[in-house]
Write a structure and sequence with these properties.
Elements lengths: L2 H21 L1 H41 L3 H9 L5 H4 L13 H14 L2 H4 L4 H13 L9 H15 L10 H13 L9 H6 L3 H6 L3 H14 L12 H16 L3 H16 L8 H16 L7 H26 L15 H23 L4 H18 L9 H6 L8
Length: about 400
């Protein structure tokens, strides 16, 4: 039946019901009340069934989101390498030679060396299962995958330890920072917020703003609530509320749109000599800026690593651009246009100047221990600038040279 006929029928039925209850109240009012009770009971039953379906769906999702028990046992049986063995506690750390299982071991080392696993009495099997489950819930996209998340948490590890910022955070804050870092891109689909919004995806309809970041956070909570994955299990109620609130704040802070809104406020706090970075809004803002600093951390790595990562980011962007070409008729920006690959060096310079340098400079002005972040990004900027001017043919790898058509293969 068409919708307009349904609506008209309902209107006629309601009018008829009003007439009958007005002129024959003794009979029709009790009947009306009985019908309402039946309707309410049916509505309640539907609601109960819907909640049951949601519970079952969450149980199924949690089961499939959790790492297989054999993997947990395998990782528990392995010795965790010392941080110095793999240079985990250095700004120059390179994950590329490591296997996925070795990155899990390094993740465990981070929780051990920061004292977080002992401070909050996290059972070793729970920590292993959670780390493996987080890895499992990253999709195999080109860049925003498990390896990126692992590098983000490794950079935060350096900031807290080598960089000296542990003094400004409680153990609970550090637990929230590490959890947020490793979870901040969970279930990333290889497309950005603008694409989600323009495509009117289910995620965009659900969240509205900071679409992916809110999804990443909710996915993070889902894993924590899955059996055997709750690394927050020893927290009391107040600690748990604070930790979850900070994890949410930290993950949402990786939305660059929010970074741009808050950057000036952060600079003002940096310029004020009496800012207390260990409490209140200043600490929250610092946490958010550190999340962004870690998220962008690949730009600070040694040049050999930076080249490879820049190529991965570009290729993921181009895949989004291909989707935009199919859906909208053209890529939405040059960085998503595959034909613009020769302009990668120029785009990298702009990225460093507009996004990275202001953040790293502000951080180093207040926290000198973070100078390697600024130094690394500026060193890479020098190389990208030379390439953009056609003067850096000796810098570029043969693999990248083939893709940047301005440079002959085999350089």
């Amino acid at each position: 039946m068409p919708n307009d006929i349904l609506i008209k029928s309902a209107q006629i039925g309601f009018s008829f019901h009003c007439i009958l209850t007005r002129f024959y109240p003794a009979f029709f009012l009790p009947l009306s009340e009985h019908i309402c009770r039946i309707y309410n009971a049916a509505a309640y039953e539907r609601k109960v069934k819907l909640m049951a379906k949601q519970t079952v769906a969450l149980e199924v999702l949690s089961y499939h989101a959790t790492a297989p028990e054999e993997e947990v046992q395998q990782i528990m049986a392995r010795a965790i390498p010392e941080a110095e063995e793999v240079k985990l506690n250095t700004w120059e750390f390179d994950d590329l030679p490591l296997s996925d299982m070795e990155t899990i071991q390094c993740t465990l080392r981070i929780f051990v060396d920061t004292g977080i696993s002992s401070s909050f009495k996290i059972p070793f099997d729970v920590l292993c299962r959670w780390a493996l489950s987080v890895k499992k819930n990253y999709r195999p996209v080109l860049y925003h995958n498990w390896r990126h998340a692992f590098n983000v948490v490794q950079t935060m590890f350096c900031i807290i330890t080598v960089g000296g910022l542990k003094a400004y955070f409680t153990d609970l804050d550090i637990l929230a920072l590490l959890t947020a870092c490793i979870s901040h891109d969970l279930d990333h689909r290889g497309t950005n917020n603008a694409f989600q919004t323009k495509s009117n995806t289910a995620l965009a309809q659900l969240y509205g703003t900071s679409v992916l970041e809110k999804h990443h956070f909710n996915h993070c909570v889902m894993i924590l609530q899955s059996p055997g994955n709750n690394i927050f299990g020893a927290l009391n109620a107040e600690e748990y509320r604070h930790a979850i609130k900070m994890v949410e704040h930290n993950i949402i802070s990786t939305d660059l749109a929010l970074y741009f809104k808050k950057r000036d406020s952060f600079k003002q706090l940096v310029a004020y000599p009496d800012t207390d970075w260990s409490s209140g809004p200043a600490k929250e803002l610092l946490s958010g800026m550190l999340m962004t600093a870690c998220d962008l951390g690949a730009i600070t790595k040694p040049w050999d690593i930076q080249q490879q990562v820049a190529d991965l980011v570009a290729q993921e962007f181009f895949e989004q651009g291909d989707l935009e070409q199919q859906k909208f008729g053209a890529p939405t920006a040059p960085m998503f246009d595959r034909s613009k690959y020769p302009e990668l060096p120029k785009m990298q310079v702009g990225f460093i100047d507009f996004i990275c340098t202001p953040l790293y400079k502000a951080l180093v002005d207040k926290f000198p221990g973070l100078a390697p972040l600024m130094d690394g990004s500026q060193s890479n900027r020098t190389n990208w600038h030379l390439l953009s001017e056609g003067k850096g043919d000796h810098l570029i790898s043969p693999q990248l040279a083939v893709k940047i058509k301005d440079f002959p293969p085999g350089v």
